[in-house]
Amino acid sequence: MSRLIPPLVWLNQEIVRPPAIVQELIPAQPGEFFIVSGRTGIGKSILMSNILFMVGSGTPFYGGYASVPTTVGLLMMEGDRANLEDRIRKIIRQYPGSDRIKFDFRLGTKPLEDNLDYYKDTFRGCNLILLDNLSQMTTSDRLKPEYAAYWLNIWQGFLREMEAVGGFTMHIKKPNEASLF
């Protein structure tokens, strides 16, 4: 007997979805996280800034995915302040205002495992915690598997303790034009 069913029957079945901050994209279970990764200049920070304002204001995610209004905080930890201010001014005009949107800009490296109190104070009350970028909150060992596993355990523990979901950006190297990979 076939396990296949007609498409209209399949489409009419009830779908049980887990709770989400942004349906099908950002889960609502504390400790869960997502990573926005790409080469320098591809738009990771712009995407994270848009997530900040979309989720904080309850605006549908790029018009298509339901977004539950959530207190969200974004800590930008790199870049040029003037450039960042220009980006934020352009983005903020696209969304309704909300007291659920929290933002800060701090240059410098602050490894998570050595600065948990700093991050707890920074994100107190946020249900979605966004960090831009990974290299500013880890040590130079971040690409070593043992350290990466250690750090991810600390990150998830931090998110669970804060009763939050998280997201962070991660740089990858620009491709070597002389390489096949």
- Helix percent reads 25-40%
Quaternary assembly: single chain
> Taking Cα atoms only, what radius of gyration do you get, to the nearest Å?
19 Å
Average per-residue pLDDT, rounded, comes to 89
User: How far is the N terminus from the C terminus?
Assistant: 45 Å
Query: What is the tally of beta strands?
Result: 7
Summarize the main sheet: 5 strands, parallel
Low-confidence stretches: none
Shape category: globular
In short:
It is built from five helices and seven strands, in the order αβββαβαβαβαβ.
Q: Could you characterize the architecture of this molecule?
A:
With 181 residues, the chain is an alpha/beta fold. The chain is built from five helices and seven strands, in the order H-E-E-E-H-E-H-E-H-E-H-E. The chain has helices at 7-11, 44-57, 81-92, 116-123, 145-162, and strands spanning 20-22, 26-27, 33-39, 72-76, 101-105, 128-132, 165-172. The protein has a five-stranded parallel sheet with strand order 3-7-6-4-5, with helices on both faces. Strands 1-2 form a two-stranded antiparallel sheet. Strand 4 (72-76), helix 3 and strand 5 (101-105) form a beta-alpha-beta unit. Helix 2 crosses helix 3. The radius of gyration is 19 Å and the shape is globular. The mean pLDDT is 89.
